[in-house]
Amino acid sequence: MTIFHAMLVVTEFLLLLSKLSYGADDIITQSDSLSDGSTLISKDETFELGFFNPGSSPNRYVGIWYKNVPVQTVVWVANRDNPIRDNSSTLIINKQGNLVLLNRNQSLLWSTNTTKKSSTPIVQLLNNGNLVIRDEKDSSADEDSFLWQSFDYPTDTLLPEMKNGWDKKTGILRIFTAWKNWDDPSSGDFTASMRLTNNPETAIWKGSTEFYRSGPLTGGTSSGAYEMKVNPLTNLELVNNEEQVYYMYTLKNKSVFSILVLNQTLLLLQRLIWIPDSRVWSNYLKLPHDACDAYNVCGPYGKCVIDASPICQCLDGFKPKSAQQWSTMNWADGCVRTGNWSCGIKSRDGFLKVTGVKLPDTANTWVDVNMTLDDCKLKCLQNCSCTAYSSFDPNKDSGGCSLWFNDLKDLRVIESSRNLYVRMDASNIGDKHEHTKTAILLVSIIVSAVIVMLLTLYISRKKRKNRENNNEDEHYDLDLPYFDLATIVKATNNFSEDNKLGEGGFGPVYKGKLQDGQEIAVKRLSWSSGQGSKEFRNEVILCSKLQHRNLVKILGYCVESGEKMLVYEYMSNKSLDSFIFDQIQSKLLDWPMRFNILYGIARGLLYLHQDSRLRIIHRDLKASNILLDRDMNPKISDFGLAKMCVGDQIEATTNQIVGTYGYMAPEYAIDGLFSVKSDVFSFGVLLLELISGKKNRTLTYYQDDHNLIGHAWKLWKEDNIQSLIDDNLKDTCILYEASRCIQIGLLCLQHHPDNRPNMTSVVVMLNSNNNTLPLPHEPGYLYTEIRSIGEASSKRQISSSINNVTMSQLDAR
Ligand SMILES: *[C@@H]1O[C@H](CO)[C@@H](O)[C@H](O)[C@H]1NC(C)=O
Ligand SMILES: *[C@@H]1O[C@H](CO)[C@@H](O)[C@H](O)[C@H]1NC(C)=O
Ligand SMILES: *[C@@H]1O[C@H](CO)[C@@H](O)[C@H](O)[C@H]1NC(C)=O
Ligand SMILES: *[C@@H]1O[C@H](CO)[C@@H](O)[C@H](O)[C@H]1NC(C)=O
Ligand SMILES: *[C@@H]1O[C@H](CO)[C@@H](O)[C@H](O)[C@H]1NC(C)=O
Ligand SMILES: *[C@@H]1O[C@H](CO)[C@@H](O)[C@H](O)[C@H]1NC(C)=O
Ligand SMILES: *[C@@H]1O[C@H](CO)[C@@H](O)[C@H](O)[C@H]1NC(C)=O
Ligand SMILES: *[C@@H]1O[C@H](CO)[C@@H](O)[C@H](O)[C@H]1NC(C)=O
Questions:
Q1: Containing H/E element for 686?
Q2: Which of 133, 278, 397, 611 has the most CB atoms at less than 10 Å from its CB?
Q3: 0.70 cut: is pTM over it?
């Protein structure tokens, strides 16, 4: 025993000596090993390599983390898919010069695989967090001299100075893969890497499906990636040559820690910044950033405009491929040319300039870096498969040339210097104003002619109908009044601009006055021409059966000469958003009124979800969809038409995102999974907006969190929820009641749908003032905006400049 003990001491001493003789804690030599319990520390003490348990997991892994960050921040894991079960494994350099991880029984758990050989290999942890195997004598920092480096095999974190890209010589493509979970570093299915196309761009995948695309990176700033924009924290570098393609960032101030991390739980790529004073990693940026960042959300030749409603539009000169699908906000099919494009025929072949876009998917592109834009155009004209061209690098004089040979996918309008020239029928191009004028003239002539014709037709049809006496039709007619076009034209003063109330999700809405003096609202459906008249009528009739005092009442409909219109009761007080977000109007809404509105919305939604015969998910509940009648009673509008969900289909998936930025539930925005609980989430947002008088999407609190939900949660945790209440309400509201409402709102905003109450419970909770409410957990706030590191740190100089940048980026959206 004593001999054994003595031997142990001697070995340990020798080990120590070997380290001392080297004078470094950042190196493992061939005669060394690194056992569980000891660590390597980079020379400047920024990074540490050793054995760790992630979260509360009993498994042990070898990893690299920030030494001086008190929150465990593992930036690289060696044996992520092959955990160690005990504390007796060691890291050594084997005879082949590889770094290997052996367990107690000397069996292999993990190994590097170097192809380059050296007689005296050592392992070193560098100051930038790169773990390298190099020759003992060759101390150059050039990566070509490394036999192996961990930077080539990243896990989920892109560190400063680490390349995200492709080494064409070695064939190494660096792929970032998220941890499965916060306590499980094994490979998730959320990955990111550079795309191997002629036009360098980065992308994120969920499984094998493309999830997000940055847009081509050439030209300093990318055409679509916020990460690539000039920012006060990082310097960006893009290299694209014969040997390698990569993008890399370095920190402007090395004492500020900042990393890019993929997060499987949130399905986000986040830029985090360490805030030493508050000891947290703060979010600076998230990708995808908004609904328009979802890959190809508007389909081929569609463009996503984040501020529009709905967000998808066709490029000029294109129309929806399937008008019916498009009208139900299913944009996957995208758009097709309106004109008669003919390849190579001068009068029918041209280009339309689309300005300020994220350039389309580069999967099938051709690039020449030296060509001029004019030559680029000619080159595109010569090939009938060419669909668009653009300069390769707008910052250079010659500009270069990129050609696209496939359908143009994943376009979004974004503040950027990039222009795209889209090929189309030349007759679609030219002075648009002239065209519109002629068009208006033509249309008005045609419309008046049509009206006359229709009137005659209608009269004769009515006569015939009376003779035929079709039972079914009569039944419909009894159920829901039919308005003929002439009546509506007259009531709305021929759809005059003065009568226009606004533009809804499905088309413009006009105010009208019938001959008997009744006021109506007419919604002129824009894209539903693909749907047959009969289907449309059936759908309207279904909707008209939904009758509740908190739903807008449908008075009738009209289908004639390709027009489809819905006639609603007119709401003299317009929509809720014109009250709560308006400085002056909001003063008119006292607490009893607001509570009444809230309760009414809840009742209306409950009716849609449960009490009506059709179980309907609204899918686009928001302040502008709540109309107010003369007595300020709320009425939900725009229900039912988006998609009918009859019977059991209360949960369904859709591959397209419908709905409005700021109100969407996380599971809906990410997986397209919608249920009545997604409406409950939107109700929660609406509730917070109504009580705080602030919009969820535009609000950014620089002092702390980001959007309204995050802010409410923070105040809740601080037991200070009352400061969320609108100042205009302070005099009239019963604090206890308002706080209770906010708590209900937070419950509606829970991240997981199962944790949200259904509308029955919401109505019960709103109704009773005594029952104790459940305590909310942290809500889901997917589309939180860029979070400022602002006041959270005391570095005001940096923070104010960061704020400026985030502000301008936000403004652009
Ligand atoms: C392994 O080491 C860790 C940290 O040193 C310690 O918390 C844990 O209890 C050890 N486990 C065993 C089985 O010895
Ligand atoms: C090591 O070997 C022993 C006996 O040979 C075995 O019981 C044990 O499971 C092995 N441990 C590991 C981690 O493989
Ligand atoms: C080792 O190299 C092979 C082929 O060169 C490759 O397929 C494998 O993924 C590499 N393994 C690791 C852990 O890098
Ligand atoms: C993702 O982010 C959330 C919120 O910051 C965090 O709780 C979670 O641990 C992260 N997940 C992973 C896998 O890192
Ligand atoms: C870098 O940041 C540190 C602290 O985070 C600060 O003290 C220092 O002044 C900064 N350096 C520069 C050049 O801004
Ligand atoms: C398209 O071309 C066909 C045949 O060339 C022609 O009949 C038709 O009128 C054209 N349509 C338009 C909209 O120009
Ligand atoms: C582009 O021009 C540069 C400088 O004139 C030249 O070195 C390079 O070879 C050219 N590249 C191609 C692809 O023609
Ligand atoms: C047009 O471009 C496509 C894609 O690069 C190519 O396959 C085809 O050969 C080209 N056609 C002509 C006529 O150059």
A1: helix 676-692
A2: 133
A3: no
**What atom of ligand 8 comes closest to residue 384's alpha carbon?**
1
In this predicted model, what pLDDT tens digit does every residue of 774-795 receive, in sequence order?
899 888 765 443 333 322 222 2
Residues 304 and 413 in one domain: yes
Are residues 687 and 591 part of one domain? yes
Does 255 sit in the ligand 5 pocket, CB within 6 Å? yes
CA of 234 to the centre of ligand 1 (A): 39
Same domain, 252 and 309: no
And the tokens for 196? 């191997």
The Cα–Cα gap between 176 and 156 comes to 5
Q: Which atom of ligand 3 approaches the CA of 113 most closely?
A: 1
Residue 637 in any domain: the answer is yes
* Whole-number Å distance between alpha carbons of 543 and 547: 8
Mean pLDDT, consecutive 10-residue segments, the chain of 813 residues? 55 50 74 92 95 94 96 95 92 92 91 88 94 88 88 96 91 95 94 89 93 80 53 80 89 90 92 88 83 91 84 91 85 90 86 89 90 92 94 77 94 81 83 49 61 58 44 42 86 88 74 88 67 67 79 85 82 87 85 92 90 76 88 83 37 45 73 81 94 72 63 89 88 86 94 90 85 85 40 27 27 27
Question: Which of 62, 113, 131, 187 to mutate for ligand 3's pocket (most ligand atoms within 8 Å of CB)?
Answer: 113
What is the C-alpha to C-alpha distance for residues 680 and 761, in angstroms, rounded to an integer?
Answer: 11
153 CB near ligand 3 (under 6 Å): yes
Same domain, 506 and 545: yes
Give 282's strand partners.
273
Residue whose token pair is 């921040």: 73
Q: Take atom 13 of ligand 5 and give the residue whose Cα is closest.
A: 253
Domain total for the chain? 5
Q: Does residue 369 have its Cβ closer than 6 Å to ligand 7?
A: yes
Q: Which spans in 469-532 are helix H? A: 471-479, 485-491
* Domain identity same for 322 and 224: no
- Cα separation of 525 and 505, whole Å? 9
527 and 648 share one domain: no
Query: Which ligand 1 atom sits closest to the C-alpha of 86?
Result: 13
Range of the domain at 123: 23-153
Query: Does residue 256 share a domain with residue 393?
Result: no
Residue 101 lies in a domain: yes
Domain-located, residue 471: no
Q: What is the CATH number of the domain that holds 385?
A: 3.50.4.10
Q: Which of 351, 382, 352 is nearest to 366 (CA)?
A: 382
Nearest residue by C-alpha to atom 10 in ligand 5 = 253
d(CA 120, ligand 3 centre) in Å: 22
| Segment holding 810, helix H or strand E | helix 796-811
Residue closest via CA to ligand 1's atom 14 equals: 87
pLDDT, tens digit, 9 for 90 and up, residues 733-775: 888 888 999 999 999 999 888 899 999 889 888 888 777 888 9
User: To the nearest whole percent, how much of the chain has pLDDT over 90?
Assistant: 33
Give me the active site residues, please: 620
Residue nearest to atom 2 of ligand 1 (CA): 87
Judgement on whether residues 560 and 605 belong to the same structural domain of the protein: no
Tell me, yes or no, whether 519 lies in a domain: yes
Query: How far, in Å, from the CA of 293 to the mean position of ligand 5?
Result: 34
- Give distance in angstroms: CA of 374 to centre of ligand 8: 19
Q: How far apart are CA 417 and CA 138, in angstroms?
A: 45
Local structure of 101: helix, strand or coil: strand
Query: What is the domain-level CATH number for residue 771?
Result: 1.10.510.10
